[in-house]
Amino acid sequence: MSYAPYHWHVESVWAGRTPNAAAMARAPGISAADMALICLFLLGLYTNYTIWLSTKVPFPSAPAGIAGVILLWRRRDAITPRAFGTLIGVMFLYVVSILCAPNLTFLSRRLNGLIQLTYSIVIGYALFLTVIQARRSQITGLFLGISLFIVVGCLLETYGGLRPISDSVRQVIYNRGVYENDLRDMLLYHRVRPKFFASEPASVTFCYTLFTFVWFVVSRWRFKLLLYVVLVAVGIFAMPGPTLLLLLALILPYMLFLASRQNGRLNVAKLLKVAIVSVFFLAAFFVLAQTVFSERFKQAQSGNDPSFFYRVRGPAIAAKEIVRDFPLQGAGLTGEPFIEQRVVNIYVQSPAYSVGWQVVSPATELLINYFWLHWIYLGAGFGVLIGAALTRWFFVIGIPSAAFCWMTWAILGQASGAYVGPTCWAVLFLSGAAAVLHERAPDPAEDRRRYSTSSQDLIARVQNIQHGPQLEQAR
């Protein structure tokens, strides 16, 4: 089946030729096979199961890669020449960036990083093309269902005796990177955090955060904000971790760039209303950080939390120094070995770093934040240039708000690394697909429900008009 006509319509809308028409476009829906492939893709993100083709060539998130390639083939007719040409332009800029990077002795490693980056972007684009063809009800049901499944699984692991099975499976499928900090969890959270077949608790909380937020953006349910808050609370209880607080921070891009829109355009009156809601959720973010995760918050503030340092504070400090030293080209894609000693020196000299910490290895573990890795790899010059090229591509493929995508991507980047990996780009493409579905007209079933409700309201009003004079006379 070819989906090119619909995709061309969306592309032409956001290229500026037919404003507001995107909201009227309806998708034909996707098949059960497509839904299964999306699930396989998300499973790859959740497990981050990697197959090593050689000692230096990984196949990251292998289930996602397999699903992405199949989805790309199934959606090949939806790729327009203009979208393909813009993508080639983006990848060309990445090629130029690694050729301009300092110390060409690392060129082979950077080329390997470019291959991984291309793989991640392509399968992420395939996921995007599939999701935007789905009906809104299909995506909300899928992502909410997966989020609830994760919650139930975590509760069973903690209270239902599932932990031995989960740990046994994890020992078999993960030959490296298995989480072994249960003692630290006991000190910080007074219990062992559930992994539920993932390599570490952070993968569980990150995917739960991402999937729940996608459901929230796409859903048109009147009380979705209330359920969203409930899901945040349930998540904190079932799988405690500060990553879940990002669910509160993610309200900000949604409110500013999607909820404030009407008929495809910014509505100032709605913007003022949603700004108040955003402020409330940001306040809740800081309050919960200091109460629910008080011990973790105190350690992060006092510089005694190595995980927080390597994920948030450290990469930001390193990015500032690397951009200052290499402003135009950065360190190059996957350039950690080139700057490893420099980054270690920067960390050791930082007042937020504790000399009692063990210096992590390999170099990729020094920088676990894909947002700051963008600037470390590319510098200010190529960072801005490639960011602008990607933004242009987003509009070409029909994403209504690039700002929403970038802000969502930046927030979730504080809990995930691997800039060239599939997770980084899946976040960007899933947020883009969610924005497309958010702007789309209601599904036919929703239209029927609304029509029925509107008809009943109209009949009631007519009856009130007819019987109004009689009631006045009776009085």
UniProtKB/TrEMBL annotation:
The UniProt record lists the keyword Transmembrane: yes
Transmembrane segments annotated in the record for this chain: 32-51, 85-107, 113-132, 139-159, 196-218, 225-251, 271-293, 367-387, 419-437
Keyword hit for Nucleotide-binding: no
Alphabetical UniProt keywords: Membrane, Transmembrane, Transmembrane helix
Signal sequence, renumbered to the chain: none
Superkingdom of this protein's organism: Bacteria
Protein name: O-antigen ligase like membrane protein
Organism: Enhydrobacter aerosaccus
